[in-house]
Amino acid sequence: MITAVVPGEVDDTAGRVAGLGTGGVVARPGLFRRLGGPTKVTVVAAPAGSGKTVLLRSWISQAGLPGRAAWVPVGRDERDPQRFWLAVLGAVRRTTPGSALVQPLTAAPDMDGWAIAERLLADLAPLADPIWLVVDDVHELGPEVLRQLELLIMRAPPELRFVLAARHDVRLGLHRLRLEGELAEIRTDDLRFSLAEAAELFAAAAVELAAATVAVLHERTEGWAAGLRLAALSLAGHPDPGRFAAEFTGSERTVAEYLLVEVLDRQPEPVRLLLRTSILERVNGELADLLTGDQGGEWVLQDLEAANAFVVPLDASRSWFRCHQMFAGLLRLELRRAAPDEVAALHGVAAGWFAGHGYPVEAVRHAQAAQDWELAVRLLADHWPGLHLDGEAATVHELLAGFPAEARAANAELAVLAAGDELAQGSLEAAERYLGLAERASPSAPEVRRGQLRLLLGVVRLLLAVQRGNPPGVAEEAQRLATMAEDEDAAWEIAQYDLAPAARADLGEDLRVLALISVGSTGFWAAGEDAGRYLERGLTLARRIGRPYLEFTGLAHQAAADLYESFTRSAKHATAAVELARRHGWTDDPAVGFASVEVATALIWQGRFEEAEPWIQRAERVLRADAEPAQGMSIRVTRGLLEAGRGRDVDALAALQAAERLAGDLAEPVLLTLAIRAFLVHTLVRLGEIERAEQALAELDDQDRDNWLNRFSLALLRLGQHNPQGAIAALAPVLDGFVPRPSPGQPAPSLPEVIFWGPVFLLEAIVQDALGDPLAAANALERALELAEREGALEIFLLNPAPDLLERQARQGTSHPALIADILSLLAGRQLARPAGPQPPLEALSHSEIRVLRYLPTNLTGPQIARELYVSHNTVRTHMRHLYEKLGTHTRADTVARARALGLLAPSPYRGQATRAG
To answer: Whole-structure pTM over 0.85, yes or no?
Structure first.
């Protein structure tokens, strides 16, 4: 757990109390002074039952630190960075200093723990009042979370200090702090009670013992906190304390088991609720009453917590509790010994209570523990849509792993959930296999579950169609969901935007948002028709019902749809999506990559290549081409546009060929597929690969060959063959289709006209000049310039460079002299002055480079960073060289400063001081 504590001087008076007894307090002034010392990190490492947690809670309480404390438990076998860091941020936000600095965060698929740690560093950078974070049971964290925590420790501001409690040492690189005098350690021997402290513990528990008996118990327990507390519980009212002390012997384990039996046999019945509730990770009064069949569970739990009898509160209101982990394990052993036939039934009761009170994850886990697979499947199936939309894909993956392997193929509902899980993991083929299994097994599903099964199949088919880039499939599945809702008298009409409340929660507004955004996002790939309407409606509803993740994905796809209208508007929505993702910790979500593509596309068309590069890098890192081929095509086409604009035609060709390969994974061709083929021909002509270009056009069918994009490509090919007559003949049908605008007061050209007609008129100008008709060339060039002026679409003139024509146009008179000057500057290799616009996104580098970058603000050397990352020193040096190149820096300190300025790293906590990077 994590606790935020204000460090301060703890005098002997305050240190004389520590709630380690069973009904009173025990003096531990030495330990209190060490916990309140000046070091950056204090480690409390000792086995279970040593008194770590009680010591820390007592210190916080007796030092007057409530209000600055945040206590979050780390669950057993914790491996989910998202869950851990969300708990950390939530707890720190509840402290007085943290509430003013740390912004809220929401779970989402693919949440990056590194990004959340950076976010926490950024929020706490201006921290003025000291805070201590106390992580209890840190040994339960997985390796990646430990590395993230280590980085937080190394880069934290001076006011942020840490106490780490664990059963054993963990890999955190704390030896460096030890050498620097910044590490204090409290270990098993330090936690052992002295004879005087043991006597005080028994006295505080109202147990009167002779000094000799206390000495025997202290010797037998070797000062072990759990053993002494268990002994105190057993001795309360014992008729013969001397005999008890004489029989008290053995190892810590056997002593604990012996005392457990003594405690349970000698305590009143309400205390025995611990035995039946030991199956739970957490318990409240109502749940305790249900499992014990008794009343007053909440009072008993609060009384046990007040007596420090192995019960720890989990919230400020003291309504949820957990048992000490060692004690809970012994209780479970005893329950299996004393009542083995009741264990499964208790888990089943717990599953029902958690399901009925809105805790589906715990409900499923208890149903699995009861081996009630039918109940577990039903619970998970009923709550899967909500878990998916809340970004709990990792949790669903873990829950599915708890079912027998053969169940996925045998149970239709479980098979469709497995399909959704495979989609979240990025495996489209496996998802399709499980969908097939689910459909084949659906006739065997109970009649009462077939409606829910149809819903699950519809949602997963919808998600699969989205990732396959299949607009008709998306529309079909969305309408199928709408029809299901109509059958339930829910009046849900996607196409007509009838958003009346649904009759059933599982067909509610959240699924409507998902369907609207899905239809809109895939509509963009077809031709943009109605995409904006669906997305706008989905966004409005997402904001209204408080679904920020759906709002974020909707914004990302709205940015794509806006490319049909305006570069500026598209970039605005895309940067809004990235900012929303940053606030919620979704910076590694594929939708961030998609939004980044749109910003990059706008910048590339405007000739702002250096600004576009970081956005493309970001997209290339987070977009999964195998799982999302349509978006994978988009990023590769965008990369091709960038490289072509830079004059790197070989690199452009490689990117386009990769995009063409991905087109084969789509359910059906989309508009972008035709654009890729045309762009490929264009690039081959630029490279002088005339025969390959002609072969590519020859492979097209008649319908595709007549498409204006391919006629444009044919004109380019003919021009490359020094055949201007053939080029103008190829362009003629396209030019005949242009409808000129009426003169004065005519509206501005649309973005499609800029992108589509601008290159056509430019090519016409080049061809007419080659045919010896300078007037026709000038008129066509002026048209191209007029179209490009609106959005500053300079890329048109870089893909088909005609500097001589442009210079002549400037001399002879043009309405666009500034635009021509900018184009000629780019053609000459000069960068344009950078206008105000979107800045590069967070972490717009490769994954490996980002890992190295995060260590640069620390005082680790290159070899030390290599050891932390389990790579060679040469690998680290290579990544650092790439960082220097990409960020335009020459030293490590400059790289850190540049990364902070770009938002790749949190601001420096050392305000007014030099960076720690060497």
So the answer is: no
